[in-house]
From TrEMBL, chain A:
The lineage of its organism: Bacteria, Pseudomonadati, Pseudomonadota, Alphaproteobacteria, Hyphomicrobiales. Pfam families: ABC_tran. It comes from Roseibium polysiphoniae. This is ABC transporter ATP-binding protein. The keyword Nucleotide-binding applies. Belongs to the ABC transporter superfamily.
Automatic annotation (TrEMBL), chain B:
The lineage of its organism: Bacteria, Pseudomonadati, Pseudomonadota, Alphaproteobacteria, Hyphomicrobiales. PROSITE patterns: ABC_TM1. InterPro entries: MetI-like, MetI-like_sf. Keywords: Cell membrane, Membrane, Transmembrane, Transmembrane helix, Transport. CDD domains: TM_PBP2 (cd06261). This is ABC transporter permease.
Length: 271, 293
């Protein structure tokens, strides 16, 4: 077996400093549901980290806490690399649905984050076009979302996330609703962009295959209460392409991660 | 061990001949063309037939013109009485459009206010409902007691009838902005005003225009009903008064002429509203798009 899946801290990027740390995060909803219990996680700079787990394990809650859409009941979120007092973190969010404004053109949709910061259309123009170019939609700036295919809408959504030049990209099952061919293509594109720009990506999915293909670290979570049960580093080198997807190594990784996921789900049955 | 066997697939050579037209698609295109023309021709033809039928019924049954005038008599009255009728039409139009304007902006402003605070909505929405469900004809006499100016009274009556659809539709629209988009705006630190301007108002647009379409017709109805109640004669009187006056004098052709002007006004308002919807929505909203299959 050539594939090496190592426990946390052994990976190539382990030495990178943490860009955000979750310290003993718990989240209890008003109806008594414990979404997360004492979860700790250091997300290191430049990582492509996937949160993998069954539904109800709190993956999305982690993202919501990272974006400050909700706050943890107990515990702390720390951004050690930022100056104190900075209330906006340089991050962007990609939803499961494209979540575009149907009344605005592609340009208008990508412009939105800048527009909300008070940047005029003229000043934003170059940055918006640059973001559209990155996702291969430079020729579609004047189209309306309804004129685009599902994959193209998702690209617009990604361009909108990139236009602010974020350090951290949060993605909540972004490709789950796409067909497999489009998903493979977007997987490759997002990997390529990640390698080029060196962001930190936090990716939520429940597809073992997708998580293995994309990430260099997989955090397996279990449900009720949501918690981390396994933290694995994948050593497979980038760039990854179709050769990786068809390699025996890939199959081994998938098996290992799949076993870990099953163990996480079994753990629940005994509760 | 799993084995996948590949089979040879024969690729047909290009013969260079044009692919024959699909008869199904051809008939579909023809049907679409006929439908486009029929949309205009059919209503016009039916209208003409009914006017001829109306005329024939009058002649065959020897109905006197003070009971049911022949169409030609109505037309003559429309021409002959145009100086009187046009002033009445203008007065009715003034009230109708005035009420529509106040209803539109008032309804919009109230809806925005309602969505800014749930407590304001909870407190005041019932009053809007009460105003709406009480028949205007029952409130109108009171209004004319309290308001000195007849014109102001007419405006208030027409406005009461027209503003509710704008208010309730726009409130619904402002609240129906996509939840994830709202989260996105929150994440990017959008202000209340930005969220309203860039998200809630555009999302409410189709609902608002739907409300406006209803309000247009209702403000005409409100204006006419109020005029009947006010019963004012003189320089400020509108089409409803012409109908009342003509009925006293058994001038039935003029009554019909006034009626036609009211209907015409209603139709013009309806078409105008449809046009407005098209202008604002044709680029993106489902209601304004053609189905592809």
């Amino acid at each position: 077996m050539t594939a090496k899946v190592s426990e946390s801290g052994q990976g190539a990027r382990a030495s990178s400093p943490a860009i955000v740390s979750l310290n003993q995060i718990s989240k209890t909803f008003s109806n008594g549901t414990i979404a997360l219990r004492e979860m700790s996680l250091d997300i290191r700079q430049g990582e492509f980290i996937t949160l993998l787990g069954p539904s109800g394990c709190g993956k999305s809650t982690v993202l919501r806490i990272l974006t400050s859409l909700t706050s943890p009941t107990t515990g702390r979120v720390e951004w050690p690399m930022e100056q104190s007092g900075q209330d906006e973190h340089e991050m962007s969010f990609v939803f499961q649905e494209p979540t575009l404004m149907p009344w605005a053109t592609v340009f208008g949709n990508v412009w939105l984050p800048l527009r909300l910061k008070g940047i005029s259309k003229k000043l934003a123009h170059d940055r918006v076009m640059e973001a559209l170019e990155m996702v291969g939609l430079a020729g579609f700036s004047e189209s309306y979302p309804r004129e685009l295919s599902g994959g193209m809408k998702m690209r617009v959504s990604i361009a909108r996330a990139l236009v602010t030049k974020p350090k951290v990209l949060l993605m909540d099952e972004p490709f789950a609703a796409l067909d497999e061919i489009t998903r493979f293509k977007l997987n490759n594109d997002i990997l390529h962009l990640w390698e080029t720009f060196g962001w930190t990506v936090v990716f939520v999915t429940h597809s073992v295959f997708e998580s293995v293909y994309l990430s260099n670290r997989i955090v397996v979570m279990a449900a009720r209460p949501g918690r981390v049960v396994n933290d694995m580093t994948l050593d497979a080198p980038y760039p990854r392409g179709d050769e990786f997807r068809t390699s025996a190594e890939y199959g081994d990784y998938c098996r290992t991660v799949s076993d870990a996921l099953h163990a996480a789900m079994d753990a629940n049955d005994h509760l | 061990m799993t084995v996948l066997t590949e089979h040879a697939v024969a690729v047909p050579e290009h013969s260079g001949q044009a692919v024959p037209l699909d008869p199904l698609e051809v008939s579909k295109a023809r049907a679409a063309k006929i439908e486009r023309q029929g949309r205009w021709i059919l209503p016009v033809v039916i209208l003409l037939i009914s006017i001829v039928l109306w005329d024939r019924i009058c002649v065959w049954n020897e109905i006197p013109h003070y009971i049911l005038p022949r169409p030609i008599l109505v037309y003559e009255a429309l021409i002959a009485d145009w100086p009187i009728l046009s002033i009445a039409l203008l007065n009715t139009l003034k009230i109708t459009l005035g009420a529509m304007l106040i209803a539109t902006f008032g309804g919009l402003a109230l809806a925005v206010l309602f969505t800014q605070s749930k407590w304001i909505e909870i407190s005041f929405f019932p009053f809007a409902v009460i105003l709406q469900v009480t028949p205007i004809i029952a409130i109108a006499p009171l209004i004319f007691i309290y308001v000195d100016s007849v014109e102001a009274g007419l405006l208030i009556c027409a406005w009461i009838v027209a503003f509710f659809p704008v208010l309730s539709n726009t409130t619904l629209g402002l609240n129906s902005a996509d939840h994830n988009l709202r989260n996105l705006f929150q994440m990017y630190g959008a202000t209340r005003w930005q969220t309203l301007r860039y998200l809630r108002l555009p999302a409410a647009m189709p609902y608002f225009l739907g409300g406006l379409r209803i309000a247009g017709g209702l403000s005409l109805i409100g204006a006419i009903v109020a005029e009947f109640v006010a019963g004012s004669a003189g320089s400020g009187s509108g089409l409803a008064n012409q109908i009342l006056e003509s009925s006293y004098r058994l001038n039935i052709p003029r009554m019909f002429a006034a009626l036609i002007l009211i209907s015409g006004t209603g139709i013009v308002i309806f078409l105008l509203m449809n046009f407005l919807s098209h202008v604002f929505l044709h680029k993106w909203h489902e209601s304004a798009l053609k189905r592809e299959n």
